[in-house]
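Example 3.2
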Amino acid sequence: MKLLLTSAGLTNPTIVQALRDLLGKPTQESIITVIPTGHTAETGDKSWVLQEDFLLPHQLGWKQFNIVDLAAVASLDKSLWWPQLEETDLILVGGGSVFYLSYWMQKAGLFEALPKWLESKVYVGISAGSQVVGSDLYATVEVMEREGVFTDTDYDEIGPVGQSSSKTLKLVDFTFRPHLNSDNFPKIRLPYLEQVAQTLKTPMYAVDDNSAIRVVGDTVDVVGTGQWHKLEALI
């Protein structure tokens, strides 16, 4: 299993080189499939989607560049889009609403397929795409239990009713928390996250937009040029 879990994608040469190393062959000889589904449930300007999911990866040059929006293809015959995922060398799952992304990854069958696929493919996550492979999603459990709404108050994120899930793939035994010290997410700071970590059952990696977690089998390390912290769970 080879994973590259980022906060904001391929933001610096160190992260790009980590991707190349994991791939093990030139990008010009490889197929990438981008899953941008998570952004659909977000409002406002979507420039970040264009930059993270498409422009930065595309600049590396690929034999083939596929795009599969899991929500959009739900009404299509599976033969029209599933082979793109089966035949790809690298799956890049973008950011946005992690609750919405989790729902559609399950509905499309990726929760069942990915563990087997990742015996030979590389997985790159961006923000929500990184969170969904972890051991847990940190969410406001009280609101979910009371109102049936999936919400993450740290990011002001509310999952769409009827199309949200907090289930993760549990491919790694830690929680991924993106956008450390980002101006866009003022609560994602070390003192606050230290409190959050005390409510979790597994360690938390808090990662800024210039860092990434690299996973190769059972080996986990951090690459990039930014800041990150590993916070041990106290439960």
